[in-house]
């Protein structure tokens, strides 16, 4: 299965993006939860996807304020409640996985027992709702190690982001050997190693043959999921961009 994020750089209604993604030939899509931090009713868009036989693979939780999860204050409690809301959304719309950021920026707070207990509560609710929680590698991998090392649940796993791995200063760290057995989601995109550019695969410096071999070697059987934006491809229409993204995704599948 090949999927793509519905936000790939074109300001169109979600339902229209879903139609374009399916018409381009993708099997699945991933969506963001909330827009401009406002609750949305996704029922019409998801019904459109299901009517077109387009699989909604996961929901990405909002990442604004994600550092709050580590603070012993009201903002921390509110952040945890937001993630519980996303789990409820996954359950309501029968979407199997929530993707979650554990930190943001270079000055993120230290991980601690307060945040870990909140995350354990989130995972416990996910277990009750039959929803997976996939934690993404970001600027600092210590958060990922701390959480996955202390949350022992079949519902808690890893979302592997190739772009972050390539440009955040730990490209030599073998994340897939460490966490591949808990791999639940992919964010496949490229960059030149200097910044998180979200280029299409093969337009940057990611070692795609090695990466795809490692993903296959981890036993991953989920979607080949593209998380790219049209920055640098602005001359392409949405339809043209999607066709190019699909061609790159097909090239990735040939490397497995």
Distance between the termini: 13 Å
Domain count, please report it.
Answer: 1
Order of helices and strands: EHEHEHEHEHEHHEHEH
How confident is the prediction overall: mean pLDDT? 96
Percentage beta strand: 5-15%
Specify the CATH class.
Alpha Beta
- Write out the strand line-up for the largest beta sheet, numbering strands in chain order: 7-6-5-4-3-2-1-8
Low-confidence stretches: none
CATH architecture: Alpha-Beta Barrel
Question: Based on CA inertia axes, which overall geometry fits?
Answer: globular
Largest sheet: 8 strands, parallel
**Oligomerization state:** single chain
Q: Total strand count, please?
A: 8
Helix segment count? 9
Looking at the structure, the CATH topology is: TIM Barrel
Cα radius of gyration in angstroms: 17 Å
CATH 4th-level superfamily: Divalent-metal-dependent TIM barrel enzymes
Helix content: 40-55%
- Find the structural class using helix and strand composition: alpha/beta
Structure description:
The chain has 256 residues and is of the alpha/beta class. The protein has a single domain, classed as TIM Barrel. 41% of the residues lie in helices and 15% in strands. The protein contains 9 helices and 8 strands. It has an 8-stranded parallel β-sheet with strand order 7-6-5-4-3-2-1-8. The mean pLDDT is 96.
């Amino acid at each position: 299965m090949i999927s793509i994020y519905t936000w790939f750089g074109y300001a169109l209604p979600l339902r229209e993006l879903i139609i374009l993604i399916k018409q381009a030939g993708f099997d699945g899509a991933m969506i963001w939860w909330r827009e401009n931090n406002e609750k949305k009713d996704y029922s019409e868009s998801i019904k459109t996807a299901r009517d077109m036989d387009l699989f909604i693979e996961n929901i990405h939780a909002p990442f604004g304020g994600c550092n709050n999860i580590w603070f012993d204050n009201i903002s921390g409690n509110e952040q945890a409640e937001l993630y519980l809301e996303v789990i409820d959304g996954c359950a309501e719309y029968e979407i199997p996985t929530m993707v979650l950021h554990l930190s943001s920026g270079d000055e993120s707070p230290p991980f601690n027992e307060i945040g870990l207990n909140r995350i354990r509560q989130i995972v416990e609710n996910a277990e009750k709702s039959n929803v997976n929680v996939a934690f993404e590698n970001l600027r600092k991998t210590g958060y990922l190690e701390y959480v996955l090392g202390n949350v022992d649940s079949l519902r808690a796993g890893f979302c592997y982001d190739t772009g972050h791995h390539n440009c955040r200063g730990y490209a030599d760290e073998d994340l897939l050997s460490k966490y591949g057995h808990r791999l639940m989601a992919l964010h496949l995109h490229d960059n030149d190693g200097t910044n998180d550019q979200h280029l299409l695969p093969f337009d940057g410096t990611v070692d795609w043959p090695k990466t795809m071999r490692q993903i296959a070697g981890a036993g991953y059987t989920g979607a080949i999921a593209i998380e790219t934006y049209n920055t640098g491809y602005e001359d392409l229409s949405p339809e043209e961009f999607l066709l190019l993204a699909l061609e790159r995704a097909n090239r990735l599948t040939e490397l497995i």
